[in-house]
Amino acid sequence: MSEDVVYSEVVFVKRNKVDKDDPDECHLGDSSRAPQKAKQCCDWVRMVLLLLCILLTGALVALSFQCVYTEKKLEDLQQVHNVLNENLTAVLQDMLHCTQKLSKALYDSACPKNWEYHAGKCYLFSTNKLSWTDSRDACISDGGHLVIINSRDEQEFLIGIIKIEVSFWIGLTDEKLEGQWLWVDNTNLCKDKSYWTRKEPDNWKGHGGEYPSREDCAHIHKNSIQDLKSWFDAVCNKALRRICETRSSRQT
Ligand SMILES: [Ca+2]
Ligand SMILES: [Ca+2]
């Protein structure tokens, strides 16, 4: 028996709807190829997302390395800073030391040995005793003159140096004319710049006239720490210490 095809038995199945229960399919239309295209679309999205994740991970790793590198660089810079700071401190200390040595050298060179510096002048306070005339000559031999006191500042300086109850000749005399006091440079004593102690000068001749030559030379004699009035007239042949004065090589 021959197997003839009977076309009346052919059944045409029309697919009118897409199975909505399939979660993997994209619904792009009603054509018969829509599910395949939707699947391809989802695959592309996954690939793009995966690529973005890879790139993000790479960026995070790069940032981590950059952070580590920056921290290391910062530590190195901090160490360099510390070393430079230590070196700078050492240099500043050396400069301070040199400045102090230079100042001391300048100060020491301002006056001859054993002379005291003050306000551009040098002063010698002798330890030996001579008459006023010999003291005047000794100061000249030493390169100066008996002290001439021109200001309160100078008087304060001298009083600050000498000890209580120790007398020193100063460069003041009235030998030429009684009562006319002259400094050794022949300038007159100004009354407002004199520091006679109380009741001096008195040109005292002694209780029984034992000082006929009278008192014609001045000396400084500190009575107390604060009292600037410390000058006396005395007989010139009396042996006392002396204060010599000369200009300093440093005029400041
Ligand atoms: Ca006198
Ligand atoms: Ca006197």
Automatic annotation (TrEMBL):
The chain crosses the membrane at residues 44-65. CDD domains: CLECT_DC-SIGN_like (cd03590). GO terms for molecular function: carbohydrate binding. Keywords: Lectin, Membrane, Transmembrane, Transmembrane helix. Residues 118-245 form the C-type lectin domain. SMART domains: CLECT. The keyword Transcription regulation does not apply. This is C-type lectin domain-containing protein. The lineage of its organism: Eukaryota, Metazoa, Chordata, Craniata, Vertebrata.
